[in-house]
Amino acid sequence: MKWSFEKLQEYKNNSFEDSGKLDLKADLKERYPDNILDATPFDVKVSAISDNGDVIIDAHVKGSVTVPSSRSLDPVELDLDFDINEVYVNTKAALNRYDEDVVVLKIDEDDDAIDFDKAVADNIIINIPMQVLSPEEQDGKSMPSGNDWEVISEDDFNHQEEETTKVDPRLASLKNFHSKNDDKA
């Protein structure tokens, strides 16, 4: 999906509508080879309108990607369904009209085209959670391990920490031994 910024600026009173399927598999695998193993075509519905010479784009994106599990690196299919809200401007001065929480992008002065495929690809990566687990891993499948090492859950780690900080009750009375001797001196 690629549109002329100048053409989209003409949509002041009514919105520009577009929809289609984007096959971004090759682009995603090339740009993010460690993060994306596979991708289905994404359904994209776009609405754009011009306001004060800027172009506001709202889009809905739906599809799925296959990513490595964050625990075992096994392939995990992940369904994605998200919205994109971006503002495109053609001058640096226009960037200052918006709050920091608004995504504002300045278009290239040499090429007034908005390449929305790249925006969708970037937002796909942004919408992948930091922790992705396979269904088996979510159900408590054993953690990966090797010679003299194993991955443990945070709960198991906290339990081990509690066990190591417990003092043998027979030695508990010695806990304050040095402070009592320091008081007598």
Describe the structure.
This protein has 185 residues and is α+β, with helices and mostly antiparallel strands. It has 2 domains: 2-138, no CATH class; 145-184, no CATH class. It is built from 7 helices and 10 strands. Strands 2, 3, 4, 5, 6 and 7 form a 6-stranded mixed β-sheet that branches. Strands 1-8 form a two-stranded antiparallel ribbon. The radius of gyration is 27 Å and the shape is elongated. The model has no long low-confidence stretch (mean pLDDT 85).
Largest sheet features: 6 strands, mixed
N→C terminal distance: 82 Å
Mean pLDDT value = 85
Kindly estimate the percentage of residues that lie in beta strands according to DSSP.
25-35%
Task: Please give the number of β-strands.
Answer: 10
Order of helices and strands: EHEHEEEEHEEHHEEHH
Share of residues in helices: 25-40%
The total of helices stands at 7
- Structural class call reads alpha+beta
| Approximate shape | elongated
Task: Break the fold down into its secondary structure elements and pairings.
Layout: E1 2-4, H1 5-8, E2 16-22, H2 25-31, E3 38-39, E4 42-51, E5 54-68, E6 75-89, H3 92-95, E7 104-106, E8 113-115, H4 116-126, H5 135-138, E9 145-146, E10 149-150, H6 154-165, H7 177-184
Parallel strand pairs: 6-7
Antiparallel strand pairs: 1-8, 2-4, 3-5, 4-5, 5-6, 9-10
